[in-house]
Specification:
heterodimer, A: 332 residues, mainly alpha, ABC transporter involved in vitamin B12 uptake, BtuC, two-stranded antiparallel sheet, 77% helix, 2% strand, disordered N terminus, B: 307 residues, alpha/beta, Rossmann fold, 2 domains, four-stranded parallel β-sheet, 49% helix, elongated
Chain lengths: 332, 307
């Protein structure tokens, strides 16, 4: 990397700063505290079966949140990921149940079709919001409806089912008690971490979130970087759809309702700033764990549904308040 | 803005034109107000009603659906539109058992035959508004009890069960939970836990996995719909448990193979495809001069098992 424009340089300095390490350490400590709490107060929490369950349960949210991290880092938001996931699932479901295909062909076709559906929606979100400089909040709200409507239309509102056995196997397979689907998500975190920290594209994602004008004046095609961020988010929704199908062996057009909110929550709890430019995908990983561990532990402890929902809400608000102090500290 | 007004005027014009078209044609017009067409249960019901229109051929069907389960705004608008168009009958599956009473009262006052199906309007709200209206629909509580009893008779006294509920506050969710609880009382089952998964497969999968961790000795699961039962079955498969019995509700096509190979013990069919069509038949009888409907006209339900 010979690129030494200002935003890039500033962001790179940030990467290795004590502060950024402390940020993630703070979230990690919060996660540890929650884990400790549940380990003491419930007997089943720290069992290998339950840990496997937690890993499986956070997989889809984690994948969606990885994509969401890119969009939030550029100062945008993507409200459509839950619906896009449903659309990708339905498209992949139609592909995998297409008559006259061998199991292998059907699975490969489904995976490609699902990812393509996600990518197309992501490109649309990116191009429309970046070209006219419109708030992505509104554009992706539109896409939320377009994708959900398309999913319902294509599937005729019917649940698609009965997939090849090998596909189902993949959804429940494990290596040393770790679900393969979780390893897929973890691999995506690593790839995203690499992209964000060690490529020009990644560093400029931070740069756009910090000071879009500076990146533009430095001669970078901001438009395409923004489209790139939304495309990655769409691709993640497509991959989440494939995982969803493999896990449950169905493709439902009403899947993923409000999943975008959980994904955004994971990113924000993970310390990424809603105004962009600051945060990390490692934080997102920890944020997804906090949400998943809470959801799991609060059931094990026997708390009722409504209390559970309230506590999740409180955690999100605490995370945003912490983010306020982080931002204040960072601006000094 | 001008363009918008023009479009609105054009739309009104078309509505008026089609209104006169009804009047010239002697066939009675039935306005069908459905719940969320995103739900395959209602989608199938709508298809059933459309086929019914073709098969009978002596009435005209105007159907309106909604975006989601709780969108009663657009149901109110649909009822108003039907009143304006002067339809002969309105057949409605209310999205909210209280909010829909007042707009339907307006329809009755306009001389339209109103039939309430699928979910019953709230008795209190009806009394308050001075509305008398029969209900045509299945006994959700009785149906859930049939499924619960199938489970209870297999497990016997003291069997440990959990319930997966539908959307909190939704009338059919409440009725089904009460039905399951009736079975729990009847067979003296041990109810370990009862939680919502909002009718959804993925959430049921997650929620039930965690319930299973907390209660590994559970023997039976009562799910308030089949989508959630599928999530439960997948959770049992990945936990490697084949000793736990599952019952659902709705008899959607996807559970057919699961009932056959024993992964599910039973589900309940309330013949959703025919439900709107049956309600339309009843409405047309009244339109043709038959006596007004009274009380609760129960529609058939049936327990579905492998036998």
């Amino acid at each position: 990397m010979t690129d030494t424009t200002n935003p890039t340089h500033a962001a790179r300095a940030h990467r290795f700063s004590l502060r950024s390490i402390l940020n993630n350490a703070g979230i990690g400590l919060a996660l540890l505290a929650i884990i400790l709490f549940f380990s003491v107060f419930t007997e089943h929490f720290l069992t290998s079966n339950n840990i496997t369950n937690i890993l499986t349960q956070i997989t889809i949210n984690l994948i969606l949140a990885v994509g969401m991290t890119f969009v939030i880092l550029i100062g945008g938001i993507d409200l459509s990921v839950g619906s896009v996931m449903a659309l990708a699932a339905v498209v992949a479901g139609k592909a995998i149940t297409m008559p006259g295909l061998g199991d292998g062909e059907a699975i490969i076709l489904a995976i490609l079709a699902g990812m393509l559906a996600g990518v197309v929606c992501g490109i649309f979100n990116g191009v429309v919001s970046a070209f006219w400089a419109l708030p992505s909040f509104i554009i992706t709200l539109g896409m939320l409806n377009i994708a959900r409507g398309a999913a319902l239309h294509i599937s005729d509102a019917q649940t698609i089912y009965s997939f090849p056995f090998a596909f189902e196997e993949f959804g429940s397979a494990m290596i040393y008690g770790i679900p393969i689907v979780f390893l897929v998500a973890l691999a995506m975190v690593v790839v995203a971490w690499f992209i964000l920290n060690f490529t020009v594209f990644g560093r400029l994602i931070y740069g756009i979130g910090n000071n879009e004008e500076a990146v533009r004046l430095a001669g970078h095609p901001v438009f395409w970087y923004k489209v790139g961020a939304f495309t990655i988010c769409g691709l993640c929704a497509g991959i989440a759809a494939i995982i969803y199908m493999a896990r449950l062996n169905i493709a439902s057009p009403i899947a993923g309702i409000a999943f975008e909110l959980n994904a955004i929550a994971a990113v924000i709890i993970g310390g990424t700033s809603l105004s962009g430019g600051r945060g990390s995908v490692i934080g997102t990983l920890l944020g997804a764990f906090i949400i998943g561990v809470l959801a799991n532990g609060l059931i094990l402890i026997g708390l009722n549904d409504f209390m559970r929902q309230m506590i999740t809400g409180v955690v999100i608000i605490i995370a945003v308040i912490l983010d306020y102090y982080r931002a204040k500290y960072a601006s000094k | 803005m001008k363009l918008f007004k023009l479009a609105a005027a054009a739309a009104t014009g078309i509505a008026l034109l089609s209104g006169t078209a009804f009047a010239q044609d002697d066939k009675p017009v039935v306005g069908l107000v459905m719940k969320s067409l995103a739900n395959e249960f209602f989608q199938n019901m709508l298809e059933g009603a459309k086929e019914h229109e073709k098969a009978r051929g002596d009435y005209e069907l105007k159907a309106v659906g909604m975006q989601n389960e709780t969108d009663f705004e657009s149901q109110i608008n649909a009822v108003d539109t039907f009143i304006t168009q002067g339809v002969d009958a309105i057949v409605i599956a209310p999205a909210d058992s209280r909010a829909m009473v007042r707009p339907l009262k307006k329809a009755i006052e306009a001389g339209i035959v109103v039939v309430n199906f699928d979910v019953a309007l709230d008795e209190e709200a009806k009394k308050e508004q001075g509305v008398e209206l029969a209900f045509v629909g299945p006994d959700n509580r009785g149906g859930a009890e049939m499924a619960g009893d199938a489970l209870g008779s297999k497990l016997g006294e003291g069997g440990k069960v959990v319930i997966i509920e539908g959307n909190p506050g939704a009338d059919n969710a409440t009725q089904r939970r009460l039905g399951f609880e009736d079975s729990v009382a009847e067979y003296k089952l041990d109810l370990l836990d009862s939680r919502t998964a909002h009718w959804e497969t993925e959430e049921a999968n997650t929620v039930f996995s965690n319930m299973l961790t907390a209660n590994p000795d559970v023997q039976g699961v009562m799910a308030a719909n089949d989508s959630m039962a599928i999530g439960v079955v997948k959770a049992l498969e990945s936990a490697g448990r084949d000793d736990i019995l599952v019952v659902g509700f709705d008899n959607i096509p996807a559970v057919g193979p699961m009932i056959e190979d024993g992964r599910m013990l039973a589900t309940v069919d309330q013949f959703g495809t025919d439900m709107a069509a049956n309600a339309i038949d009843l409405a047309l009888e009244v339109v043709a001069g038959g006596p007004a409907l009274e009380g609760w006209v129960k529609t058939p339900i049936e327990l579905v098992t492998a036998e």
